[in-house]
Amino acid sequence: MSTAAYEVHSEARGPHWIAWISRDGSGKPDRSIVLVAATRDEAESRARAWAEQTSRGQTT
After folding, report:
1. Which of 3, 38, 48 is nearest to 18 (CA)?
2. Which of 15, 19, 26, 48 has its C-alpha lying 20 to 30 A from 41's C-alpha?
3. What is the DSSP-derived secondary structure letter of residue 5?
């Protein structure tokens, strides 16, 4: 699966931001994974890194 096959979503939750990726166009978190960070940029960056890592087959 290529990294181009995902979409990053984010929203503010209390004092934090959460971000997730969806791969099927549903907008739902892939594998129910949601990443938390202090800022929107950081949360989205973590989501992109996770998507790229899992696209290469590395999940640790």
Report:
1. 38
2. 26
3. G
Count how many Cα atoms sit within 13 Å of the Cα of residue 49 in the half-sphere of its side chain.
8
- Tokens 């990726």 locate to 21
Rg (CA), the chain: 11
Alpha helix ranges (H) inside the chain? 40-55
Residue (of 35, 30, 5) closest to 18 by Cα position: 35
| Tokens (6 digits) for 5 | 């096959």
For 9-36, write each residue's pLDDT tens digit.
Answer: 999 999 999 999 999 989 999 999 999 9
Can you tell me whether residue 12 is helix, strand or coil? Answer: strand
Angstrom distance (rounded) from CA 16 to CA 42: 10
- pLDDT at residue 18, as a whole number: 99
